[in-house]
Design a protein that fits this description.
By secondary structure, the chain is α+β, with helices and mostly antiparallel strands. It has one domain. It contains four helices and seven strands, in the order H-E-E-H-H-E-E-E-E-E-H. It has a five-stranded mixed beta sheet with strand order 5-3-4-6-7, covered by helices on one side. The longest helix has 51 residues. The radius of gyration is 26 Å and the shape is globular.
Amino acid sequence: MMNSKSPGLRENGFTLIELLVVIAVIAVLASMLLPALSKSQDKARAIICSTNQRQLALAAMTYALDNGDWLNPLQDVRPASGGGTAETTYRVVLWDYVGRAPRLFDCPAERVAVYADGISPYDAALGGFPLAAGTDWSHLYGYPSQFEVWNASGIGVAGAHWIPVRDDPNPTARVSSMPFGRPKEQGYYEGLHKSTEITSASKLIWFGDGGSGTDLWSDDNWWIKYITSGSEDDPGFNRLQQGDYGCRRHNGRANYAFADGHTSAYKPNDLRCDAVECWWSLHLDAHSGAAGAALAVAPGQP
């Protein structure tokens, strides 16, 4: 029987060699496109992070307008939902001002220190407590609880210089340079501040990339602060030098929201904290001349 196929023709389909060539071409194209796609995703996360911080700055502004120009406390003691009182954070204070949206306290580039996931196994490990049955740990945010301070978040509140002058002759003076203070009536020792005390809103950091998935802060994994004992109010504060890697989360930079509502990204060494300007201080010249002398920290306890 004669073969009906014409000479020189073949059955439809690819040969093995052709198929391998196609796969190789696809692999080359993927290797070229994936880095660009990854950069686009990183950029998108950074933009969302910046937007969340801007919303927090607007929430803080609105809080001050509603409270006689007093800035929200960084931390407070409030009645707890289960009775008694609990030490809680600025996130509870601003909860209604952010539309009760826990994601606004997070940065999508941070996968470990996440406020919106409630008390996670990571948070519990830092706090040294078990996730006991009967508690909705995954939704423990936005209300006073003894565990809320342990809920880490990807965005931190600025409070670099958080200890006031210990030997001030006037014990009622509010001399700490931290913008968001804490009420002395609750046992804290730096006091609250008014928005009218800010000397340069465009150069005062209110919020920034925090967390970073490390145990640097323990229960304060929502607070950007100077952790060297005895130097808390000294100039020269540099997050990277103290191992706070949230300061380089976005391609070596971090987002920051300022008291005038604008946000911007900076490398750790580009943030000013010297004898001329300190972007972490309520008073821009906190470390210069008489202002610096007034904020000098003396040894000992308050």
